[in-house]
Predict the 3D structure of the following.
Amino acid sequence: MTAPRLEPLPHGGDIDAARARYPDAPEPWIDLSTGINPHAYPVPEVTPGAWRHLPQSSAEHELLLAARRRYRVPLDANIVAAPGSQALIQIVPRLIDASEVAIVGPTYGEHAASWERCGHRVREVASIAEVGAARVIIVVNPDNPTGRIFSVEELSDLADELAVRDGLLVVDEAFADFAPGDASLASHLPTSAVLLRSFGKAYGLAGVRLGFAIAHERWCSPLRAEVGPWAVAGPALEIGKTALCDDVWLTAMAKTLTADCRRLDHLLQDAGLTIVGGTQLFRLAECARAPALAEVLGRAGILVRSFPHNRNWLRFGLPGGAQQWQRLEAVLQDFNRNA
């Protein structure tokens, strides 16, 4: 059996490492490497008790009610809150005996690493048609970084097949909040599925560290035990509840992000890049000189996401204000002129 992967995986958002690599880059850095909404939800005032006391079950209950409504979770399913969806990605592999796991990819690398660390046999497949007899199947929907979307119907059919062999379908919906139509499996939740939702990406509050698992009680009960007591901080419970109940903000933000994506697509295409995928929170672009462009951007204090498995890909998050847009446009135009 292959030894479990213990070294940390590279991720976006590591501005400290970028500063060390490009010490002469202008400040402030523009982080376009994470796919986090640059238009953060306005943080409400947190009650003093949320800082001073252990998180209360009543506050968690109110958060979960807000999440149930926001994600349209049926009454026969439950929700577990955790300090970020990453924590859940690492916990879910503990819920099932060592099994064959198929991950539809290439996708977010922490899924494979987490299942491997728990002794599972992991393989990456290019499509659902290639999962074979795997007992566990992992799908990121929409995918990160391609933005590929799997329909509710094909995921439901896949879950039904897994149920026959006592299997598990894990669907990571971290980027589903602004996906077109109804891309979430939550309101049609099969008994053999666990859905993972990220709060911080859509609401631009990654530092809150809040995520949810949505599943039937068979999976939620052991998940709660693994997450443990007081897992979500009191301030996160209050902030999450308020934001998840704010439908007006979410509707307006969807329009803002659509316009931002259109603007970013034009900038990238004008610079000679080809848009090959993405979501409303990031765009995936292809360029034969992608490593050189990432280097130029880094020297200019702009961090984007590169991919070792495809050196022609770069993932761009959305700039967060006029100055960021202007700086990105200037670097892209200069790169295109010197191509």
In short: The chain has two domains: 15-40+248-337, 48-245.
